Amino acid sequence: MATSLDIYVDFFGLTERPFSLVPDPAFLFWSDHHRRAFAMLEYGVVTCAPVTLITGEVGAGKTTVLFKLLATLGDDVKVGLITNSHGDRGELLRWVLMALDQPAPADASYVDLFARFQGHLITEYAAGRRVILIFDEAQNLSRESLEEVRMFTNINNNKDVLVQLVLVGQPELRDMIRRPDMIQLAQRVAASFHIPAMDLATVHNYVAHRLRVAGAGEPIFSEPAIDLVHDASRGIPRLVNQLCDFAMVYAFTKDQRHVSRATVEEVLADGVFFAGGQTISVTPRARAVGDLSNRGDI
Question: Which SMART domains does this one have (predicted)?
Fold first, then answer.
């Protein structure tokens, strides 16, 4: 059975939904900041940086950049991706071993687990391969776990790099690593980048790009509508997608083939856009601007 989402694709003359929240490489949009973040990740890998740090708000595109990097790595690199970083240092080590496809018996002691981990790194090094451990959502690591992560880099010996670490997380991760008691970890961060929110011009280009990929032959969102999308989403790609998708559904239900600022205001006023947990209010001035349809906001 066709849904309103399927129908709105046909209604706007598109080939698919342009603002789905599901990651799709075909819609990949590289802002200047995402290019720089990728460059720093690549720099960290190429120069054998002990620790590379990438941060950004939820939905800023960190994972997109990360998976783009993974697609470029050759057979001489083995990657362990750790997304569950809760627990004490023993549990963290078990997650690491499992990410590397290594056994981590429940009854094994910490010493046994560490010996297995170190032995695996040496085996990979002897085979001409480096190991990269990527900790996604690393802001969830406890201080004890961060200290354990730092200890991993001690396995490296002079020019011989057995393991590299990539920490990816939300902005508070940078604050954690900058604390006075984390100075030893901070000193091992050789490459880092923070992905900021998109500015207004970038959001305009982002929306146009996704519509174009989805088959739009002409602009669907008015410029004032995109201005408000930027303000309400704070320039975070995932929130831009969500708000634009809602706005297109609303325009479809009103039989309007263009999304006006007034339509975006209706979405915000109805409270269907959660805005990453922040309250969004439309100011009287914004409503006044949105109502000026004679200025081309149709």
Answer: AAA (SM00382)
Handedness of CA 117, 85, 67, 102 (dihedral sign): positive
What pTM was estimated for this model as a whole? 0.80
pLDDT of residue 280: 53
The residue out of 176, 195, 214 marking a domain boundary is: 195
Q: Measuring CA to CA, how many Å separate 111 from each of 68, 108, 124? A: 35, 8, 20
CATH of the domain at 83: 3.40.50.300
Residue 135 bridge partners (DSSP): 82, 167
Radius of gyration of the chain (CA): 23
Tell me, yes or no, whether 169 and 125 share the same domain: yes
Residues of the chain falling short of pLDDT 70: 1-5, 85-88, 158, 276-298
Q: What are the residues whose beta carbons fall under 8 Å from the beta carbon of 156, sequence distance 6 or more?
A: 50, 162, 163
